[in-house]
Structure formats: C-alpha cells, structure tokens
Amino acid sequence: MSKLKVAVIGCGSIAIHRHLPEYASNDSVDIVAVCDIVEERAQKSAEKYGAQAYTDYKQAITESGADLVSVCLPNYLHAPVSIFAAENGKHVLCEKPMATSDEEAQQMIAASERAGKKLMVAHNQRFVASHQKAREIIANGELGNIYSFRTTFGHGGPEGWSIDGANSWFFRKKEAFIGALGDLGVHKADVIRYVLGTEFVEVASMIESSAKENSDVDDQAVTILRSENGVIGTLTASWAYKRGEDNSTVIYGEKGNLRLEDDPDYSLIATFTDGSRVNYELGKIQTNDNGGQNSSGVVDHFVDCVLNDKQPLIDGEEGYKSLKIILAALESNETKKNVSL
Amino acid sequence: MSKLKVAVIGCGSIAIHRHLPEYASNDSVDIVAVCDIVEERAQKSAEKYGAQAYTDYKQAITESGADLVSVCLPNYLHAPVSIFAAENGKHVLCEKPMATSDEEAQQMIAASERAGKKLMVAHNQRFVASHQKAREIIANGELGNIYSFRTTFGHGGPEGWSIDGANSWFFRKKEAFIGALGDLGVHKADVIRYVLGTEFVEVASMIESSAKENSDVDDQAVTILRSENGVIGTLTASWAYKRGEDNSTVIYGEKGNLRLEDDPDYSLIATFTDGSRVNYELGKIQTNDNGGQNSSGVVDHFVDCVLNDKQPLIDGEEGYKSLKIILAALESNETKKNVSL
Amino acid sequence: MSKLKVAVIGCGSIAIHRHLPEYASNDSVDIVAVCDIVEERAQKSAEKYGAQAYTDYKQAITESGADLVSVCLPNYLHAPVSIFAAENGKHVLCEKPMATSDEEAQQMIAASERAGKKLMVAHNQRFVASHQKAREIIANGELGNIYSFRTTFGHGGPEGWSIDGANSWFFRKKEAFIGALGDLGVHKADVIRYVLGTEFVEVASMIESSAKENSDVDDQAVTILRSENGVIGTLTASWAYKRGEDNSTVIYGEKGNLRLEDDPDYSLIATFTDGSRVNYELGKIQTNDNGGQNSSGVVDHFVDCVLNDKQPLIDGEEGYKSLKIILAALESNETKKNVSL
Amino acid sequence: MSKLKVAVIGCGSIAIHRHLPEYASNDSVDIVAVCDIVEERAQKSAEKYGAQAYTDYKQAITESGADLVSVCLPNYLHAPVSIFAAENGKHVLCEKPMATSDEEAQQMIAASERAGKKLMVAHNQRFVASHQKAREIIANGELGNIYSFRTTFGHGGPEGWSIDGANSWFFRKKEAFIGALGDLGVHKADVIRYVLGTEFVEVASMIESSAKENSDVDDQAVTILRSENGVIGTLTASWAYKRGEDNSTVIYGEKGNLRLEDDPDYSLIATFTDGSRVNYELGKIQTNDNGGQNSSGVVDHFVDCVLNDKQPLIDGEEGYKSLKIILAALESNETKKNVSL
Amino acid sequence: MSKLKVAVIGCGSIAIHRHLPEYASNDSVDIVAVCDIVEERAQKSAEKYGAQAYTDYKQAITESGADLVSVCLPNYLHAPVSIFAAENGKHVLCEKPMATSDEEAQQMIAASERAGKKLMVAHNQRFVASHQKAREIIANGELGNIYSFRTTFGHGGPEGWSIDGANSWFFRKKEAFIGALGDLGVHKADVIRYVLGTEFVEVASMIESSAKENSDVDDQAVTILRSENGVIGTLTASWAYKRGEDNSTVIYGEKGNLRLEDDPDYSLIATFTDGSRVNYELGKIQTNDNGGQNSSGVVDHFVDCVLNDKQPLIDGEEGYKSLKIILAALESNETKKNVSL
Amino acid sequence: MSKLKVAVIGCGSIAIHRHLPEYASNDSVDIVAVCDIVEERAQKSAEKYGAQAYTDYKQAITESGADLVSVCLPNYLHAPVSIFAAENGKHVLCEKPMATSDEEAQQMIAASERAGKKLMVAHNQRFVASHQKAREIIANGELGNIYSFRTTFGHGGPEGWSIDGANSWFFRKKEAFIGALGDLGVHKADVIRYVLGTEFVEVASMIESSAKENSDVDDQAVTILRSENGVIGTLTASWAYKRGEDNSTVIYGEKGNLRLEDDPDYSLIATFTDGSRVNYELGKIQTNDNGGQNSSGVVDHFVDCVLNDKQPLIDGEEGYKSLKIILAALESNETKKNVSL
C-alpha cells in the first residue's frame, strides 16, 4: 500500500517537537513538504526528514502532492490555511485553538465538509491516559452524580518553548488573538468536556495581562463554568505560574473524588466514600520542561481516521465547542456578564 | 484583678467545641451564663462550666452581669442578638458570617460604636500560623507582585458537625440564609483579604444546591474575584467534597508560589524562582474530623482586646468587608453579572 | 418483621471475635442460644449477648427455637453438628474446613438439601475487597491468559488466637484432623479458586510437623496445583512464619501481574505490560494480631441468603471443592504421588 | 609471571556480557581465542579483545594454546565441549546447566578428574552478597532451625537477552533440552542448597509450556522440595513473569525470617522473633534489564582456583547436585510422582 | 527457692519509673522496703508494691531484712548510703554517677569488697541493643582501626523528669555536685568506653551554666578525649537541647562508620568502605519523653549477678572509671589544662 | 569598560575546578596569565582559557599586566606570593588557610594596606545559602540566646581531589604545615564565626595523624571553643571519615535548634520550642565527590569588591581571625593547655 503524504505548514516548536517526529515514526506516512516563512527553518526540517522545503504555504499544499496537511502556525493563520488546504482536497490536522472566531471555525468545518475530507483539531490531552481513565470512571457511574471540578493549566509562559523565545507571536494580540487562554485554557475546556461527558452552557471570566512585559495578550485567566446538567467548576489558565507546571484537574462527585495529574507520583487518584483509594501510575503528562510531548497520539489517531475513514475524536465540531468556551470567557471579561453558550 | 464575665448565647457545636472551652481556659474570664432555646443543652453546659443556664437570650445578657457576650446562634440571629447585647453595654464576639445583609452588618457596627464596646467577628482562620506566615512573606515582598490565587474550603457538609445533624438550621434558608458560602466561603473571603493585604472590587459567582437533600441553601459555590490591584483568583466553597476536607490556598507571585494547607505534611510550602523551597510545619488546621478547633486563638484575642482596649484584628468593619464578598457572590449568581464592591 | 433466631454452637475465639459480634450487629437477627462444653464460656457469651447458655449442642439447637445455627467447633465436630442442625430444620453456617473427609462433606450437603435449608461455609476471604477486585480484573480479561500464581497463608500458629492457647484442639490430630492446611491452607484453596474462576485437577504436596512441640498435626505444607486450563501454582500454609502474618497471593498473566495483600501499603497492586500500575487501598485484611476479623461480611451474607432465599456464595458444594484440594494434599504427602481431583 | 590463556567458546550474550569482560578485567589472564559458529560474531569479539577468532571449537581449544576454556554454548553442547577441553588438558568453566543428563554430568566430572584439571560451573548467584550473608546467618544458627522457604526466578523470557532474540536456541528443546527450569530454575536449586547448607532428597513438580509461541520447552515450572533434614519449600522458575524480574528467596526459621532480593531497597532483610530487623544494602543483583551481570565474581574465582590450585566453590559435583534437582523436576512432571534424589 | 529481698532507697523518678517496676517484674525478688525523706512518697510506693515504707534509710536497710539495696538518691548521697548498705552486708545497685569524688568511689568499692557483696552502678546504656551490637562489630574488627568518634547526650533538662520539677536537687550544686555532665555525660563516658573497648587517658573540657535560671551546676559541657590507643573524639552533655533528645554516638573507623541512635528509623547504621550499608532496627532508646526507661535490663542483670555470683557488667571499678572522666572534665574546665587519667 | 585582568598562580585542583571557571564565567574579567611550576599544567590551563602560561610566579604577576592575582598554591606559599603581588600593586584573592603563622598573616594584611589594594581569603562557605540563612535567623533573634554548637568537616582525604593524588603536598608538613585542620577545619572556624556573629576567646584541641600513611600532618582534630559571650561548642576536622563527606553544623539556642547541611534532603532545618519546624531546600553544598564547587560565589564577590571598591566579606582581618583559631588548636595540642585568643 502506498503511503499517505503529509505537508507540515509551520516549522516552529510544535512542528519540531510533535508533528514532525510523530509523522516520521508513523509507518503509513511520508513527510513530503515542510513550510516556514523563515526559509532556514524550513530547510532544517526538510533535511532532517527528507522533505521538500517551502516558504509559501499554498505551494507547499498544492505542489507537494500531500494528502494530509498539518497546520502548525500562529493562531490567526489556523483558519485561512486550513480552509485553503481543505479547498484543495486535503485532510487537515490543525493546532489549537482551531480558530480565533466563531465565523472562522464554522468556515473551516464547512470547507472540510464540502471537500469530503477530515478536519481534526490537535487537542492532545484527550489522549492522555489519566483523562481517558477518568472519563471511563465517570461514564461507568463509579462517581455517581458529578457536583463540581477545578481544572487548570499554567506554567511560566511560552518564552522557553517558542522558537522565537520572548519575541514570539504568542505575545502579540494581532497574531495570537488569545494568550494563555488560547495556549492553555482551550486544552482544559476541551478536556473537561471530554472527561465529564457534558456540555457547558454558561461562562464567567476575569482576565489579566499583568505578568508579562512586551505582551498585549492575556497571561492569566480565571473562569467559572456551568454545565447543562448543573455541574459548576473553575477553569484557570496562566503563564504566571513561575514554579512548576500545573496541569491538574480535580472532580468532585457523589461517591468520591478524582485527582488527575495533581500528584507527583500518580497520574490519577480516585478516592471513594467507601474509604477506598486507587492510585494509577499511567505515565506522566509530558511537559515543556522535558522536551515537549512527542508521542501524544494525535498524529497516529489522525492518520488512522484518514486511512480507515473514521470520525476523528476531536473533529471540527468538537474543536469548535471547546473554542466557544474560550471565546465566551473573553466576552465575559469584556462585558462583565455571564455568557450563555 | 476581678475577672471578666461572659455570657455564651447558643449551646450548639461552635459553643461546645470552641467558645466555651476557650473561655474556660482563659484565666481572665468567668463563664457566668449559657443560653439555649433547648433547655437541656443550656443545662448541660451550665453544669460543665459552673454557669447559670438560660433559655431567653435577653435575660442571659441583661441579668447575668456579663461583660462579654458570645453569639453562637444560627446566622439569622447574629445581628439582632449582637445588637441587643451592644445596646445593653456588652462587648460582643459574634460568629461568622456576622450577618445576612448589609443593613444588619451596618447596624451591628453602629450599635457597638454607640455603646463604646468592642465588636469582633470570629474569623479564626486569621489566627492559623500558615496564614499569618504567608501574610508576612507577601508583605515583605518576598513573592514580588502577586498575580493570582485559588482558595477553597470544602468538606462533606455540616451534618457531622452540627448538634442537630441532618436536621440542622444550616440547611434551612430561613435560618441560615447562606449555605456553604456562609459556613465556609466567608472564611476564605476573610483569609484571602488578610493574607494578600488587599481588597476585592469585583465578584462573579455560580452557585448550586444539588448535593444535599432536604436543604434549600447553596451547597457549593464557585466564585472569581478581582482585587483593586489586579489580582484575580478563584474562591470556592462546598459541602460536596465527599472525601476529605480541603482548606487550601495557593498564591502565585512574581518570585514564586505559596501553598497553604495544601500538603499532608507541611502547613505552608514556599517555592521561589531561585530554585529554593521552604517547607513549614506549623501545626495543622484543626478540622471537624478531629473534634473541631478548640484552641483557635479567637477568644484569647477578644479577651485581650477588651482587657487592654485594643482594636480587634477582625472588628465589625473587617467582618463586614468579608461578608460583602459573599453577598456579592449571591447577587452575581442571581443576576448573572459581575458585582462591583 | 420478626427477627431470625440464631444459635451459636461453640464459644471459642471464632465465635467470640466473629460470629457473635457479627450477628449482634445485624438488625435482622437475635442471638437466642450460645453453647459450649465449658459452661463458664457459654455463660459469659450468654450474658454479653442476652442469650440462653447451653452445654449440650442438641438442646441448644432443638430447644432454643433457633432458625440459624453457627457451627464454631473443632473440625471433627463440623459435620455431625451441622448434619444434626440440618436434620432439625436449621440453616447452617459452618466454619472451615467444612469437614474432615469426603463422606462427611457429602452427608452435610445431602442433609441440608433434604431439609431444604441453607448450608454455608465460612470462607470469609471471598469477601475481602482485594480478592473480589482481582476476580473482577481477571474475569474482565484485563490480565489476558493466566499462567501461574503463588498463594500463601502463614503466621506463628494458633497459640495466640485459640481460647485454649498452646493446649488448643488445633494441635491434636484427633480433633483437628488437619493442622495449618485446615486452618489456613483451605482458605487459600478457596480463594484461589474464586479469584481465578477455575477448578484444580491435580495436586502434589509435602507436609511437615516440625515446628511445634506437643502437636501431632501438620504445621506447614507446600503444595503445587494444576488447573483444568493449565494454570500451575503454589499454595502454602504454615504455622511457622514467626515474624508477621503472610496472607498474600500473586497472579501472573499474559498482560501483567496482580499482587494481593503482598504490600504494606496497598491491598492490591496491578501492573500491566503497557507500563501502567494501579495501587488499590481497599482496607487491610484483618489479622489475628489486630484482634481478628470481626466484620468479615460472612454473617451478613448468610443472613441475607436466608432472608431472601439466595444461594450462598460459598454453599456446601463450593466448600467441598475447596476441602477436596486440602484432602488431596494430605493424600499426596502420604502417597508421594500427584492426586487427581 | 606469565598470564593464563583462555579460549571462550561461544560468542552469544553470556560470553559478551559476562565471560569476556570479566576475563578482560582480570590481570592474570589473556583472552587468546574466541569461537562461534557464526563467524562474524567470533570476529567481532576477537577484535574487541585482541584474540584469535575461530569457528571450530576443537581448533580454538587445541590450537590457541589456551590453559582455560569457557563453555558459553547452548545446553546440549556443554558436555561434549567441556569433555573435549578436559581431555585436551584444559581447565573448564562451563555455563549452567552443566549438562542435560546424569550421564553427561558424570562424564564431565570424570574427564576433568582424569586430566587433573579444574571443572567449574558458572553458578554466579553464589557470589551475590545477599546469598553469602544469608548462608552465614543460617550457618551461625542465628535463625535456629530452618522450617521452610520459597525461592523463585522469573522474568519475561530470554527473547530480550539472547543474541538471537525470539529465534534463540533457548526455545528449542533439541538444543536447550530444558527451558525456564534450565535457564533460571537451576540457579535457584544451586543457591538454595548453598544458602541452607543442606541437600534435597525429594522433588515434585508441575511444568507448563503455555506462555511462549514457537517454543517447545517449559516456560514455567512450580516445584516443591524436601531436604534431608526436613525443610520443605517451593522453587519456581518462569519466563512468564511479564512485569519485572523476580529473583527472590524467603527463608522461614525458628528465630526469624530472611528475605533475599525481595525488596526494592534492601538486598537482604532479616527479621527476628525478638522484634529486631536488620536491613542490608549490599548492592543489587544485576538483571538482564540493566545489561546483565558483568562483575559476577565467577571468572575471578575460577582464575584464582586455577592459579592457586584451589577447589572451585561450584565444582563438577556441586554443579551436578544442582542439576539433579532440575532433572528430577522434569521426571516428576512426567511421572506425576515424587522423585527421590 | 526463697526470693531475694530488696530495699529501694529514694522514691523519686528513677525509683518510680525504673527500679521499682523492674524489681516488681523480676520473679526472683520481693520489694520489702521503700524509703524517702518525704513520707508520702514512701507511702505511695509502699502501697503500690506491697512494701514497708521508711523515711530513715538506715532503718530501711537494716530493719527490712533486705538482701539488696537500690540507691536512688541525689548524687551526694550515693556514696554514704551505698557504703552503709555494704557495711550492713547488702548487695548494692547504685545510680549514676556513682559518687562525687575519687575518694567516695574508692571507699564504696572498698566497702563492698570488704563485705564480699556486689556493687553495681546503674549505667543502663550498656544494655541498649545498638551499643551492644556496635561493641561487637568493633571487637570483631569489622571497622578496622578506630580513628574518632562523637558522642552526646542532651535534652531540655531534668525539669520535666524530676519529681520536684524546676525545684529539683538536680539544679543545686550542694546536692548534685555535677549537672548535665553527671546526669547525662557520665552515661556517654561509660558507653563510649564500653563500645570502643578502650580506656581514655586525657581529657579537656569547657563547661557553662548559662541556660538554666535558679541553677548553680553545669547545664552544658563540651569535652574532648584521647584514648590509650590514640582515638580522639568529642563527648558533650547538655540540658540546653531544647528541641528533642539527642543520645547519639558516631564512630569513625578505617573500614567504615557506625551511627548509633542517630537516625529516626534505625538504632544503628553501619556503612562500610565496600559500599554496603546495614540498618539495624533494634528498638529505640527509651526517652524521658516516652515515660522513661522501665525495661532497662539493669535490675535483671543485678539480680542475676547476685543469684549466680557473677561479676556485674558495671561493677564499682567500671563505674569509677567512667566517673573519673567526668571529674577530669570538671577539673579541666577549672584549670584550663588537659587532665591525664 | 575595559575588563579586569587576572593572573592565576598555581594550576592544581582548586584553580582548575573553581578559580579558573569562575573567572571565565565572569564577564568583567579576562584571564591573562596562568602559572604552575609544572609547565604542562600551566600550558593546559593556558590553552583552555586563552591565557599566557608561566612557570615563574613573579613573571606571571609582573609581566602579564594583571590587575588581580589568585593565589592557588600550597599553604606555605600563600603569604610570600600574596605579599609579592600586593607589593606589585595587585588585588589578591588568596586560598585558605591564608597563611601558616601570625606573622605571615599580619604581613599580608600590611602589604595590601600599603598598596591600597584588596586582600580577600577564599572562605567560600560564607556564600553557602544555608550558612547565610542561619546567620540571618540568629541575628534576628529567632533562636534567642545561643548556648552551644557542633561543626565538623570531614571526608576521606584529599587523595581524590588533589592533582597529585596520594603524593600531594597536602600530606607534607613542610609545604602544608597543617593537614585536615588547615584544609577543612579553618573553613568551619570561619563559618561558625560568621554564622554566630561572635568571636572565640579560648581553644582546646587534640590532634592525631593516625589514619594516613606517608603523611606527617594531622589527619583529624577535635577541638572545643568558647566564645566571648559564653557559647561553647565543638569543631572537628577529619580526613578519616571514610564513608561520605560530613560538612554539618548544629546550633543550639534558647528557642530552638538549627541543623545546617546535616540532612540528606534539607540544607537547613530550623526547629523551634513552639513546636514548629521549617525545612529549607537551598541547594546542596557542592562536594569533592560531585566535581568540587565551581560556582562558589567567591570570585564574583572578589571582582565586585574590586570593581566597586567594596570591602570583601572575608578580608585579611577576617581570614586572620579564622586562622588564629586553627593556630591555637595546634598550640593547644602541643601544650596540653587551653589557648586564649
């Protein structure tokens, strides 16, 4: 069987640490094109993976013969490039947040549907074992009714991760549109929807940009959410957690609690009202500190969906639902009112 | 020197476990009166502490010769009894939340001022060593600018604490007015103001009453706060944390983090961006599980303020400021808007 | 509803520490008769539980109006007393090992069947949470094929447990018939059948009586078993483990291992070939050291089966199958051949 | 003094990881010949150690001028090559199991005796510090009478160790004759004889080959042993312990227990009936996981025996006694009877 | 056999917590007399142990028919009462320090020798398991040559131990003669002689009385010692270690170190230059905090020596040698010179 | 701004591991000259750091244009080379002990003063975080009055550190003058002065040279000190601590204790009489085992003092005061009398 061909658009950190090595280790795919506006970045990845280097994403998509396109660009380019790829008949794997507005997200979904191609958003946290196990426990009813939760994602900021360091597009509103909320918060919006198996209907939020110099985006946000079935909880995102990354989620239910990625030794700790406690060692979430996630499962899942015509776990609709929570948080901070979804 | 005389109004759990033993172990005070509408409860405490038993609080206050009055009653009685005591020339120590409305709180303050007597609200968490040490670290500038926080107080509910168990006034809106927010949330509103040394100006909140049967008050609340100097954070209160009490506070600053009552071994963990970490073992917060706090420091401080004519650390104004945060949370939940303070 | 009436025959340690308190705390039962050949023992329990004291078991069974009979006697009396009780129309809960020969066991089963009454054998280890969870994991196929196991039960001997200390019937072949194998080994024969969900077809054994003075029964036994589906493993029992009780079971499967009651902190540790590890804290097995098991679940289950006409989890057939393994071990030691079941 | 010369016959894993580096680091020896039927393997080791490469073991032994011969071949070749070496006047260090039958073992011993040369079997576990310390404790009588033991050696199989991986001779009965019992079980037969200082007289065993595909040898065995002085215990060997190697031994005695290589932190834990406990950190047993044992002490001891005309700790007779236990286990599994030694 | 009779002279803490209960639990002894100058103390112990109460030690010794006399008095009375007892034909067990001068010690020894009776000094630390094991390790040569040591005994002072609290004779030079050095230091002088198996020949010391009010004895001392075989080390004693008792000894030798009572978990940790480490859990030294040592082994040893005419482990000469070190320390502090022994 | 130029005299371990890399990583300094009597050592460092190599220290100092001189030579050369450098107008950083006699030290101080240049002694332990924090705690009065201390510095000897191994000048009295006391003891003399903020007035000492062959200097010393304000304590130094380096200090005060570098996990543990305990993780003292200290802070401080004309924390007077304690210890060992300072 001939291999699928992929074009990776954008050669920054997310491409280097995750998309490219994951495609390279998937036996069903050939990396045929890499593209970056900075030519030497494109060249470097091209050499490493035996691909063609491009600086024009349109050429990379149309001329490379790619079947798949990974969009690894600043947020404001997610929609236009994904739509262009879909319109040219490509399956698209787009980084999160999938877009910067409702309209963009809807257009992306529509474009892929018209093309009859897959659209997947790279919410890798759904593939983390503790999140999957927690979803299973809750779905099985082992916690009974769910009452509340807190979920957070914070670290010291993208300076140490982005290929451009402190000059990264992450800090510029024009390109990023959203700061910590878009970088980190949208992950937790997606994962808490996934784990609880419910949709949120109401959002209130407060946002600040006080911790970073030379930045005009939010660097911290505190948000409260209410679900359709009356679960309330907090979702926070921060680039101002200066000591250690925190990617934890705690869920409070009728029959016990779940602590996910909240303990140095255990991925998941389930405690029940009958006095029992179960500690799961399921492998740690990979952090930027240890080189970033390069075996996230995202690419393998995307390739599998294309090869076997499956619906991606995080398709355009799913990515859009998670995005809407973040957009609502931004709106709530502006209007000082709760926003209904 | 002759001893001060105190009348303790209400002989429920807070009186039994905290006020009465703390007065009894203070050498400057005699317990002269105890009062409860349930006569046998009054009798039992009267016998134990060699006091006179009353079932009418007015008699207890006016006929016992008391200098001090401790108000240990359901929330809706805090204001009327405190005001009555002040008007009869007594120094008043009132349980939290000090009142159930702005008007009540203001009247309490006014009554004590007119009488020239002390009014103190029993926010014992200010006397907890970890809270005091954290306040000192922040005031010293060791954390630099403060960015964010989360503070929570949750347990399985007052059923196991209240003298009336599941039939407690805690669950009846008419008497409690506020549920978990008034029982637990107001503690954290007070303590986060104290630790950060700042005032909050904006509150948003979502509240639910889903976890308790036979209750018409909130049993869980998630709240976000913004301070005058731009600190944002979450404050949550719950009677639906079914496994273990959580009374933790985490503070994120420019130079590090503080974790208060968030670790099984250490009362306070300070981590700094220079890589250092300081673990404080300062004695645990006493929990309902281990018999309740009976050496909270509240009574000793109150007595000291009366004896030496000092301003109580939590006087009426302080108690009122903490109350206003909770009242604003209730309002925000109703109006679905942020409430300014 | 009127309560069930129970007669407890034998007032030694197993009655005192387990049967009597468990019946006493079950709201559906009245203890109407206690019987012991040593009159003062019967009197003592009679007083404690408000029952009638007997020294003749036949009277205790027939004259007390009991619906249920617990047989808490030396091994050689299990069969005759159980049969007598069944023949008099009683439901019988008999201690383990249920009998000392095939014939006895078969007669017990037949007697209860004829009477249309329940017969249950008190193999309490089936009610231990780690054993139940392990059975569930294996039944779900989470371990894949099972290859091997080791299960053991050993401690320093019944001297410290039996009401007669070093003079106990446990050490006299005439009354006990079997030593450590009957006291401890039969528990593990039962529990390994239960956990693996398979039956054993072949037994080889070596037995010694070297560790106890003034004893003519086995005080240690090492046994190997083969199941119908080719699982092989070791089952050992000992009264010569002088330091600490060992009640552990380890199961080796295609996809991982289970360690039951083999760790000081965790009741069950499941390790899988995918690298994950799950530690279960499910409450410890109660040991003789900490006063014996007095909330084993055995009595509650027995009463529930009688009240609701359910089949006991360990009915006569089940108890007999576990006994046969022990009898085969004794035979193998004698014949120096493997014994087929 | 001129150095001894050694020829290493067989260049598989045991030669590469243990014999060759141990000879290389012994200052009294020169590696003069290496031999493997796969020429490139011989060449590779020859280059690394500056030796001559052979593909014919007879040439390697007779033409290299070697004084010593290490036999690192599949089991079925141990005897013929060892005998050939002895007949040609060489001291022989043979891997375990020394042979595949009584006759072979006896012939090996006889050949070396006739030649007046040393014969040593590479039972490295006797050189492990915990085994030596346990032997000393027992010999000193600190445990009093010994009652029982369990000893096991299991891991996931030789696939990851053998130079031929899943195609290794280890899985072929014609070449290996014995599987896990010969690879692992014979180690524990030897070490338990050594530690207890006693000989076994009776063996029963059950053996299965259910865990490996493409294998016709035993991959797991459970065995029970009785010693001349009435100690009974279990000896198990497995290639089906899928999670983690287990090389533990536990010994139960009158005055306490010894746990050898059974704890993640301590090589040996001695617990005594007087309540004391002694934890020995003596260096871990090296496992296949960490590259295999390459400082086992075996080669140094062999060289020392040759240089100073000492009797090897594991001479032919000792190796044979350990082998007989394994041969008896195989026989017992066939005959379903206990086998006397 | 008729029992030995003992008179215990002095009914303070050492008698109450150690001598009396140890005699009471020794089957070969009857407590016939107890004596204290405070009559009610004598009465209280007399009642508890069924003895005769005395306030005059001479009567207690001569009129009670005692065979043995325990001297549990302030230091300045050790010699006169011991001598009186010996002169009246009694075996004497005297508390430490045995005397307050060379002359007294010599007279005590002479008196017992003339009487042909035993004299033992109650240096209980020789019976502590870690000290005995360390002595054995050193005597076996396992540490090779010994180079140095540090040994200390310090706590917060005798206020919490003495029956007279802060008014104790311990703080009065006239009665105690020596403070912390006599209370604690002499223990370590004795134990370090015992453990090392050597005698000291040179002492230098600095002493202070700065930590206690209302005391005219030393409350802390730092001392250096040189042994006949060139071992040098520090011996310190203190009543000014305000947080936790420290009773540790560390010994440095050619082949490793020993840490005695220096670790919260292990009584003795032996580390060797070969990399091994052995942790001994031998039971903790009992501290004043946990009620004092009441199973020290001292009384049992004394009784055994009398019954079987053995030489006490710490006879008068041994006690005197340990005392001389302390007397030399006092002298060195005065003269500011090293003192030779 | 032009950079400072430094000449490093002596290219042994202290230069290689500390002075040279610290100068190299300081942006305000250029290493212009390196000097060693062994030419190849000078060459090697010259190449590594782009400096000029010298074998004559006078040339290195006068001809290189250096502003700064680091003296990294055997002890007996510290004074003459430092004086020569000062007389030639250089700022001097001299290794410890600064000299081998009072006269030398005084002349060094005088020479630098005459030249108007800085003289600093490289007592790096003052820069260790735990020492600084302890000094701060004591100075703040948090421990109240200080009563006593013990401070030690010991390891297995300089064999493994010195570039000459067992043939090092460290072992020759003519060049080292002092052994362990000068190598290690003077560090603790300096650091205990610094931490306590007091001066010592009296020293007694015992010294031995028993642990090293081929050495004529002290390899262990036990010393007692008394301060001007009555604090007494022990200071010990050793090259005979064969297992693990010990660089600990313990300080006993009125309100608690401090343990510095005495715990495997915490740099400093403060325990207070109010029951609280604070554990500081401040980074470990670097040991010879882990490559030596190469970020000691010494060079940065020296450079800062020169650049900004500050007084060095350890100037000549400070270094001299610490040296005097060691010289007094040597004298006390000779005279067997206390030496006053």
From TrEMBL, chains A, B, C, D, E, F:
<dbReference type="InterPro" id="IPR055170">
    <property type="entry name" value="GFO_IDH_MocA-like_dom"/>
</dbReference>
<feature type="domain" description="GFO/IDH/MocA-like oxidoreductase">
    <location>
        <begin position="131"/>
        <end position="259"/>
    </location>
</feature>
<dbReference type="InterPro" id="IPR051450">
    <property type="entry name" value="Gfo/Idh/MocA_Oxidoreductases"/>
</dbReference>
<feature type="domain" description="Gfo/Idh/MocA-like oxidoreductase N-terminal">
    <location>
        <begin position="4"/>
        <end position="123"/>
    </location>
</feature>
<dbReference type="InterPro" id="IPR000683">
    <property type="entry name" value="Gfo/Idh/MocA-like_OxRdtase_N"/>
</dbReference>
<dbReference type="InterPro" id="IPR036291">
    <property type="entry name" value="NAD(P)-bd_dom_sf"/>
</dbReference>
<dbReference type="Pfam" id="PF01408">
    <property type="entry name" value="GFO_IDH_MocA"/>
</dbReference>
<dbReference type="InterPro" id="IPR008354">
    <property type="entry name" value="Glc-Fru_OxRdtase_bac"/>
</dbReference>
<dbReference type="Pfam" id="PF22725">
    <property type="entry name" value="GFO_IDH_MocA_C3"/>
</dbReference>
<protein>
    <submittedName>
        <fullName>Gfo/Idh/MocA family oxidoreductase</fullName>
    </submittedName>
</protein>
<dbReference type="GO" id="GO:0000166">
    <property type="term" value="F:nucleotide binding"/>
</dbReference>
